[in-house]
């Protein structure tokens, strides 16, 4: 249980447990996925400087807090009561508020909407993105790359929370149904994760089990991963871990 529950939360803030629906900070075993999400939030935050931003499906609230470092005002929106109460208690600061509401229903004129790692959960994504674009000048959307998430040849991973996963052309087409101008980027491994990726290609997966190094190695690697071990760029998108679109 300790491996799936947040550690060392502030006094009075109940820890959340992993369910597979969303990532969480402060869970060492989950650090890879948390930092992978955080890298995109930090990239988006730089583009929201001085703006009023709405973080749709904000979950635990860490992303809204990151946006709040640069944005003038941030509203985190989520329908989960446990996550919202946690976010309100943990990330209380001027200019940052959390609202319990359905993302399909929330109305709030703003400069930017941030909608990360959630479009794959949505029943009618094109309709929702069009609605977001009516509310905001700019919409930031991210989603995992089907080709790096699902087994080869599969149309979806085994994540039960995902209704649809996208290839790059499919995601671009979806975004263009909502906006005239779409900028598309990919998230890739960098620094030590890039080195690990190259080691895997060289046969590391055959070496560490034989040397009985698997658990010690990954027990040290995973908690040491930071957001700087990921990078965003606009080329070779078919190989990206995640896609990030800017709708204008």
Describe the structure.
By secondary structure, the protein is α/β, with parallel strands linked by helices. The chain contains 9 helices and 8 strands. The chain has an 8-stranded mixed β-sheet with strand order 3-2-1-4-5-8-6-7, sandwiched between helices. The longest helix is centred in the N-terminal third of the chain and has 16 residues. The model has no long low-confidence stretch (mean pLDDT 95).
Provide keyphrases for this structure.
248 residues, Rossmann fold, alpha/beta, globular
Strand content: 15-25%
Task: Report the strand count.
Answer: 8
Shape: globular
The first-to-last residue Cα distance is 43 Å
CATH topology-level name: Rossmann fold
Number of helices: 9
What's the level 1 CATH class?
Alpha Beta
Number of domains: 1
**N-to-C series of helices and strands:** HEHEHEEHEHHEHHHEE
Determine the mean pLDDT: 95
Structure class: alpha/beta
Output the radius of gyration: 18 Å
